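Entry 14. Ran structure prediction on the chain below.
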Amino acid sequence: MIMSQCRSGAVGSPWGLTFDRCERRMGGVSEQAVALTVFGIEVPDAGPVFLAALTVHIPAGVVAVVAGTVAALAPKRRGRHPRAGVVFAVAVAVIVVTAAVMAAVRWRENWHLLAVATLTAVLVAVGWRARRRRGRRWRLWHGVAMSGAFIALLTGFYIDNGPQLPVWDRLPPLAFWFLPTAVGAPVTWWALVRNRALPRRRAHPRRPPGAREARPAQTPEAGRDVGQVS
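Output, structure tokens:
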């Protein structure tokens, strides 16, 4: 017969960290485990190394989301946009390092999150290089890469925490992979057009079928000029 009993204890932490100490008895043997909760999201208790990496990983993710949002909304010129971009790139680098540590501790559970974090860092590097080199169509490459990095960052968050979030917990698991891209792709296209990284489509007046293009009429003065030249 298995019996479990849990006690909750809140810890004074700015990240809303709480511990649930559970005691499970099976026959005459008792086991104790600690379940960590951050803002209502349960995280595994995989040891001090994992917890230390997670303690850095969470604020880095928050900083990356805020900086990416500021960079996306700021005018694309010197000032707020490049400064927010630098903060976003540094935060992504911290996310990759901490994700690697957590994946090393729990590889089977977190390898895909390391893959998403690595993809985010690669996209940031591509966008950063495009802006530094300023080659042909660099605005397009920069915008697509940085927007893709932001979408990948949100995708990794929802993959890991979507089942525990309100509303998101009602969605199928595939939605955590593709919904951020489905929402972010049209927004990225609109931003690229707005910032002239993509050409705007110009509406041309329609001509009736069979109509020929009208040629400019030549004036008598133009004809005399032509004759004189010839």
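Residues 205 and 211 are 13 Å apart (CA to CA). Will compare against last week's run tomorrow.
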